[in-house]
């Protein structure tokens, strides 16, 4: 075996050892500092593996996919630990099965008290209505029907709610391979995503639904690479009806000369999928706006904007929304490759918004298979440190989403991004 493959095999073994340690650790909620440390170490190994793959490109795809599948199967038995979102997914599915509308009902509503059970106390934000798109609500309903048939115990049902996230994560890898080939790139680039500890942890342990969004975005880009623009816009519309922020990607796909009408598919697709949930959504829209300025978790640029606005949250939110619109349209105007443009807009949204949970950073990982950004890769590698907030949350019930620790992450990340941008500008002059 060639030396670089030996080193890559060592990296795979170290990653597997780390995932096995997670699988054997027991209740991860009682081991937050240890899990953060282990995930950070795995992230460093992943960075080394990405560098080795980039330096020595002749790698058979089976040598990447086999370890990737082993990593995932190893941690599959681990119960969701570092996020309560999956408990929310189940409640919203159960509510729909009982005839309720997640856009109007709250877990704490007395009207729906009969739906409470042994896992209800772990539902996050029980006094808030849903802010997910109808694609996710429909999937939650279908998943609850399946899990209720397969298991009677509420805790077991929550565990099986990981299945859509896990299956879509595997599908992302396969679609990325097809997209890499459509773009004329080597298969080994898929290692960036396939071996990512962040993706494994968030989709196969915590069960976050962001892999569904990533699969739809990858499908839209694959259809675009094949010049099937109506299909591409149809899939992109579905992506926008998961967590809504992919609406910002439409200018990237839009072109007056070649594909004028495809974007209009968003209208009938939206009407069709919102129909089962049709109601007054003004409260939900206001709540959703909190993503860019209603509450704060691990924010970076937004924190600076808020400081410049003398703590005026509404003013900071308006400035942030305007900046997001300006940056999004500016990136689209430059007409980058779709994958590079999606990466840039996703990064801008995360940098400017008031919230950057660790699983949000999975939005960046697939597209670095096409354009590796050292700064953004460092950002995803540092994601485990954002879980520091759980130490006080699990022990004292105190949530402090804005910690000075985040600047130890953001200063190196933004510094590396600025240095790379300056170096590229210098080479082009």
Quick gist of this model?
The protein is mostly helical.
Describe the secondary-structure layout:
Elements: H1 3-24, H2 32-55, H3 62-75, H4 85-97, H5 134-150, H6 154-160, H7 163-182, H8 191-194, H9 197-204, H10 210-225, H11 229-243, H12 250-253, H13 266-274, H14 282-288, H15 301-308, H16 313-333, H17 338-352, H18 374-381, H19 389-396, H20 405-428
Helix pairs in contact: 1-2, 1-3, 2-18, 4-5, 5-6, 5-11, 7-10, 10-11, 11-13, 15-16, 16-17, 18-20
Which characteristics define this entry?
429 residues; globular; 62% helix; single chain; mainly alpha
Describe the structure.
The protein has helices spanning 3-24, 32-55, 62-75, 85-97, 134-150, 154-160, 163-182, 191-194, 197-204, 210-225, 229-243, 250-253, 266-274, 282-288, 301-308, 313-333, 338-352, 374-381, 389-396, 405-428. With 429 residues, the chain is an all-alpha fold. It has a domain at 85-160. The model has no long low-confidence stretch (mean pLDDT 92).
């Amino acid at each position: 075996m060639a030396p670089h493959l030996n080193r890559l095999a060592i990296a795979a073994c170290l990653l597997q050892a780390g995932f096995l340690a997670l699988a054997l650790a027991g209740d991860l909620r009682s081991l937050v500092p240890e899990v953060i440390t282990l995930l950070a170490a795995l992230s460093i190994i992943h960075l080394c593996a990405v560098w080795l793959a980039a330096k020595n490109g002749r790698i058979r795809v089976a040598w990447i996919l086999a370890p990737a599948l082993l990593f995932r199967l190893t941690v599959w038995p681990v119960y969701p630990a570092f996020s309560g979102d999956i408990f929310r997914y189940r409640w919203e599915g159960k509510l729909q099965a009982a005839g309720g509308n997640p856009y109007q009902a709250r877990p704490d509503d007395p009207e729906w008290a009969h739906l409470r059970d042994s896992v209800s106390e772990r539902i996050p934000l029980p006094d808030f209505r849903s802010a997910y798109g109808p694609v996710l609500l429909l999937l939650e309903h279908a998943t609850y029907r399946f899990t209720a048939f397969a298991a009677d115990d509420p805790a077991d049902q929550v565990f099986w709610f990981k299945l859509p996230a896990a299956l879509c994560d595997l599908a992302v890898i396969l679609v990325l391979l097809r997209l890499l080939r459509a773009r004329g790139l080597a298969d080994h680039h898929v290692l960036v995503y396939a071996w990512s500890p962040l993706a494994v942890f968030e989709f196969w342990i915590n069960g976050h639904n962001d892999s569904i969004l990533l699969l739809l975005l990858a499908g839209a880009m694959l259809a675009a690479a094949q010049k099937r623009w109506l299909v591409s816009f149809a899939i992109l519309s579905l992506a926008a009806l998961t967590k809504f922020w992919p609406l910002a990607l439409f200018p990237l796909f839009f072109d007056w000369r070649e594909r004028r009408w495809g974007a209009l598919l968003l209208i009938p697709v939206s009407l069709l999928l919102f129909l089962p949930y049709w109601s007054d959504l003004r409260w939900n829209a206001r709540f959703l706006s909190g993503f860019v300025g209603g509450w704060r978790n691990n924010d970076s640029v937004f924190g600076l904007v808020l400081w410049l606005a003398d703590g005026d949250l509404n003013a900071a939110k308006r400035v942030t929304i305007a900046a997001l619109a300006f940056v999004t349209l500016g990136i689209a105007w430059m007409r980058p490759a779709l994958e590079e443009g999606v990466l840039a807009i996703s990064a801008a949204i995360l940098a400017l918004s008031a919230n950057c949970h660790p699983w949000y950073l999975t939005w960046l990982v697939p597209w670095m298979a096409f354009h590796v950004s050292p700064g953004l890769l460092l950002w995803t590698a540092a994601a485990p440190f954002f879980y520091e907030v759980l130490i006080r949350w699990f022990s004292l019930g105190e949530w402090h989403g804005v910690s000075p620790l985040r600047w130890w992450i953001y200063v190196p990340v933004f510094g590396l991004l600025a240095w790379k941008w300056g170096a590229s500008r210098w080479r082009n002059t």
